[in-house]
Amino acid sequence: MAGIAAAAVALGITQLLSAFVGQGADSRTAVGSAVIDLTPGPVKEWAITTFGTADKLVLSVLVLAVIAIIAAVAGSMESRRAPIGSAAIVLAGVAGCAAVLSRDGASFVDVLPTVIGTVCGVVVLRLLTSGRWTDDSAAVLDEPDVPDRGRRLSLVTLGLFAGGALTGVLGAVLTQARSSVAGDRDAFVPPKVGVGAPPIPPTVQPKGVALPSFVTSNDDFYRIDTALTVPQLSRADWSLRIHGMVDREITYRFEDLERFEAIEKVVTLACVSNPVGGDLISNASWTGYRVRDLLADAGVHADADMVLSKSSDGFTAGTPVEALTDDRDSLLAVGMNGEPLPTNHGYPARLVVPGLYGYVSATKWVVDLELTRFDKAEAYWTKRGWGARGPIKTESRIDVPRSGEVVRTGPVTFGGVAWAQNRGVKAVEVRIDDGPWQQAQLGAAYSNEAWRLWSFPWQADGAGSHTITVRATDNTGATQTELWADPVPDGATGWHTVNFSIA
After folding, report:
1. Reported confidence tier of residue 499, pLDDT bands at 50, 70, 90
2. What is the distance, to the nearest Å, from the Cα of residue 131 to the centroid of all Cα atoms in its chain?
3. pLDDT tens profile 225-235
4. Are residues 314 and 402 in the same domain?
5. What radius of gyration do the chain's Cα atoms show?
6. At residue 25, what are phi and psi to the nearest 5 degrees?
7. For residues 498 and 503, what is the distance between their CA atoms, to the nearest angstrom?
8. 311, 367 in Cβ contact below 8 A?
9. Would you say residue 189 lies in a domain?
10. Is residue 124 a contact partner of residue 163, using CB atoms and an 8 Å limit?
11. Does residue 255 sit in the same domain as residue 366?
């Protein structure tokens, strides 16, 4: 408990002081981010597949659990053989400093909270394991009763632990208050759209079945990224640097974007980690500026074939130049579903590239575009074994019925979604058990960049267990493959199957 109390004080003071130094001084976030960066690709894929959008919460809890275990061991060692426990806390502090300095834009000032917190942790550990709490100190404490001295030690330890925890909470609250761009976002009015998205007809949504909304709300839109703490970047602090294999380097400030035409597009984004039948895919209406317009002023060299985009927290993605310059109208998005971008989806600006998985295209909090080549540079995920270009594959999913659901006898309607961005979905087929493939009914096709919802009316007769399978065909005539493949290295494949029963 002495070690855990010392760790609580060290972390609490570090968190409190980092609120006044800046976002980059938070060693807890820095350590968690370093863990994300150092984790092997297959382990990351397992975490995303297992925990989905809760992966960051799970990681934060695990980091705190590991710290508590190390602190408990350090306290036990310190009480038996000082100063080994103190040395362990110092080493942990050094690791925290190294993690802070490893982040983009870090300075030595950023490590001061960690250094001070570490010193305080050592002092607390030495205090709680010192001889003043032993029998020999009875005269000093004027407490001849050993149980009373033990009780005092327990109360002091508990008080320091509680104080450290409360200090950490206060630091987290102050950090949020001092760095939050909520006010900046609330004051932002998305630009007037020059080219609007076509109206969405009500027929995109099949009737008689509870399917996801054609347009996903901002709150429900999936979020997968490497940011343990959401970056807080105001419009005044934002800039976009375009450099590398260009005729001239350009840096845009946010107000510079006003001279470009703003457009609106409905685009479905998908995560490469989405398993067959998974929900790491969403559809939204995006407002922003054509990336090709921004690149045109820089003059892209003819032999550049990749844009290495970077976020404010250091994440990078490599996108084919043609995907950012062709007529798919890739966006530097500043609005989402008629509102300013939510901070956790990239405020104040992010990339939206139709047809490519997010790991090679959908950079949030984007601040840098480097024109380069695939044979000269690698992005965050491609360094870890994922494919370089990441085109989205033709896939489909069953949303109704759910796995294990009991369906009542009589007429029922099943349904789900299908997608093949940049190609569009032409047909969806459903098979019950080992029966023939049957055509599903499709919601109206909106565009090749958006998913398509489908439904399948069926007569449920007789009790028993059944299986439903789905497959989609895109507008090129290609039907999604039955061949099962994991998300690594370039996206999952296979037919989605759901087991259900009739009662």
Report:
1. very high
2. 48
3. 888 889 999 99
4. no
5. 27
6. -90, -5
7. 17
8. yes
9. no
10. no
11. yes
